[in-house]
Write a structure and sequence with these properties.
single chain; about 625 residues; alpha+beta; 6-stranded antiparallel sheet; 14 helices
Length: about 625
């Protein structure tokens, strides 16, 4: 019996070995067929995903292009806003009017020339020059240059005729004398009620678009007529994006704005490419080069900054991506198949050698694996829950800070004007003080210096409020002065008040009420309500926002009432929901009131809204009162 069992085991082993050899041969053949099939599948899938990859790469290129456009637009807008008000300030110099009245004064001409030269150096402009009513330049900052403007007649330039009519003007052109492209800002020099001459400041742009040559894409800035005024490619300058009418060409030729022979079309075709931009074919020598384009408007009316991405670059990146993706998929599938095949062979050999023991171990391992999997899932769920709670807390902090920065972003233009105005005044006072000191009029100089000090204090106060408002708020709660918070919030929205012509009425109570909360976060809520109130009153002749404070032994209430149309019932039910807004697209994300609601709840208070019987919407902040002294800002 024992010999029979041994013989059967030997036969079984021989059969198993023979079957294993045949299986290896079959596996080798299968692998060969599999490799060929995977190559074919990889090519087929690559062709299928080609449009998807091209769209994805185009979107990524668009994102990069828009970032470049924002930098270009911001740079150009800032320079234009910097130079635009300068002619009006310089035109107030008394020496300019004196020269216009006595153009033959040999002692005054050199003095004004040198004065304009120093001004040009200080403001960073290329040229500053003074034109008499007959169009002749009588003084210029470049009087030392071989291309001096002295004696040149510019009566054909629109900036001269507009300024002689009494209005500040702006013009862009190729300089007749300097042969440099630039923006010309002009203002009248007045003598009482009469225009005695024109003061012009020129800002060149050659250095601006010369820096664009190092960018990955091509950059173009076109004026309202479609003429390319600035471009990363020098040969594209003064080309046109559209065909000019006869009237447009005549106007350009009359003012000698551009070389009329250079105004040839830059592009032949424009095709919309889905939501990803516009395809433009550009003449480049003897060939036409296709580009994808995106554009954004700049500060000048009708002007646009355009970025052009070569189509060939997008297609090359697409093919590289598809090839990389296809190769990676092929390699991963092949490795996975070989690993699976190797594991299958090993399991088969182990099954033949240790069938019973492997079966038991397999069952134990499977059970252990199930328990480990369940345990890992439980641990992961606990960790995910903890991470989610932490993320929610951080998200709420970030939303509060984002709300502050969004408010500052909306007020940025007005705040810039609020700071630029005293800066311009400081410059004027400083210039006058120098003149007074030169004339030994120390009393007048002292007055100008006092004015400069006052303007500096004004800028410091604005900067301090902005710095505190933008600072990250803490989580701790303490005693906060309600009156101080409202005063600071009103100060922060005053630039918007002046810009819109609105009015804020706040009768501060004699009692300094304090509540439990955070100073900066409560300030953010009040700023948001004041800004919303100004926006709500846009339809009225004058937007009026009224603020009052009432108190009980346990609570302090801040009321903010606007003179807008009030809230519809369906709006009142959703007004504190995230991302709900009644404003036009681009004027708000609908997060301000939602963030405010959460901040007030964190303070243990509540925020209410209702339509006032006399019209308009009235918000009420109900906060917990305390009799402690106000703490430091948190």
């Amino acid at each position: 019996m024992v010999y029979v069992l041994r013989f059967e085991m030997v036969c079984y082993y021989v059969r198993a070995t023979s079957e294993t050899g045949r299986e290896q041969i079959s596996i080798a053949r299968t692998i060969g067929r599999l490799v060929g099939g995977l190559v074919a599948v990889g090519l087929f899938i690559g062709l299928l995903v080609l449009p998807f990859m091209e769209t994805k790469i185009l979107k990524r290129a668009n994102t990069s292009a828009y970032s470049q456009l924002e930098l270009v637009r911001e740079s150009l807008d800032q320079r234009i806003k910097r130079f635009a008000p300068l002619p009006q300030l310089i035109a107030q110099q008394s020496s300019l009017l004196a020269l216009l009245k006595d153009a033959e004064n040999e002692g005054l001409v050199p003095f004004v020339n040198e004065q304009l030269r120093l001004l040009a150096i200080n403001i960073g402009g290329t040229d500053v020059y003074l034109i008499a009513p007959n169009g002749i330049t009588v003084a210029t900052s470049n009087y030392r240059s071989e291309r001096s403007f002295l004696g040149n007649n510019y009566d054909y330039r629109p900036y001269f005729t507009d300024a002689m009519g009494g209005a500040a003007s702006q013009f862009h052109a190729l300089g007749i004398t300097s042969r440099e492209r630039g923006f010309f800002f002009s203002a009248p020099v007045v003598d009482g009620t009469e225009v005695a001459g024109v003061l012009v400041v020129k800002m060149t742009v050659d250095m601006i678009d010369a820096a664009w040559g190092g960018l990955d894409n091509e950059i173009v800035v076109a004026d309202s007529n479609g003429v390319v005024f600035m471009a990363s490619q020098p040969e594209w300058r003064f080309r046109t994006l559209v065909r000019l009418s006869a009237a447009q060409k005549e106007k350009i030729e009359t003012s000698r704005q551009f070389p009329i022979g250079a105004l040839t079309p830059l592009t032949q075709t424009l095709d919309v490419v889905g939501n990803d931009g516009v395809r433009m074919d550009v003449f480049d020598g003897d060939e036409t080069v296709p580009y994808y384009t995106q554009s954004v408007p700049v500060a000048l009316r009708g002007w646009h900054a355009i970025v052009l991405t070569p189509v060939s670059v997008i297609r090359t990146q697409t093919w590289y991506a598809v090839a990389y993706w296809g190769t990676s998929v092929f390699v991963l599938l092949l490795i996975a198949y070989l690993i699976m095949q190797r594991q299958a062979q090993r399991r088969e050999v182990e099954r033949l050698q240790m069938a019973e023991r492997d079966l038991l171990e397999k069952r134990v391992n499977e059970r252990t694996l199930e328990l480990n999997t369940v345990n890992r899932k439980l641990v992961n769920k606990i960790q995910d829950h903890q991470a989610t709670e932490a993320e929610l807390r951080n998200t709420q902090k970030e939303l509060v800070q984002a709300g502050k920065l969004a408010s500052l972003g909306q007020m940025s233009a007005a705040l810039s004007h609020e700071i630029n105005q005293p800066l311009a005044a400081i410059r004027a006072y400083a210039g006058n003080a120098v003149d007074f000191l030169d004339k030994d009029r120390t009393g007048n100089a002292r007055e100008n210096i006092v004015h400069i000090s006052d303007m500096t204090d004004r800028i410091a106060r604005i900067s301090k409020h902005l710095t505190n408002f933008a600072r990250q708020s803490g989580d701790t709660l303490g005693a906060v002065s309600v009156g101080d918070v409202v005063d600071e919030a009103i100060t922060l929205v005053m630039p918007k008040v002046r810009k819109t012509g609105a009015e804020i009425v706040f009768d501060r109570p004699d009692t300094d009420y304090t509540i439990i909360g955070g100073h900066l976060r409560l300030q953010q809520v009040v700023v948001n309500l004041l800004s919303n109130g100004i926006d709500a009153g846009e339809a009225a002749p004058t937007a009026i926002v009224r603020v009052r404070i009432d108190a009980t032994p346990d609570t302090v209430s801040i009321f903010v009432l606007d003179n807008g149309p009030g809230l519809a019932p369906e709006v009142a039910d959703q007004i504190f929901d995230p991302f709900f807004t009644t404003k036009e697209a681009g004027k708000g994300m609908g997060l301000g009131l939602s963030i405010s609601f959460n901040i007030i709840e964190d303070f243990g208070g509540k925020i209410l809204v209702a339509n006032h019987p006399d019209g308009g919407a009235e918000f009420e902040l109900v906060l917990q009162r305390t009799h402690q002294k106000p703490e430091a800002i948190t």
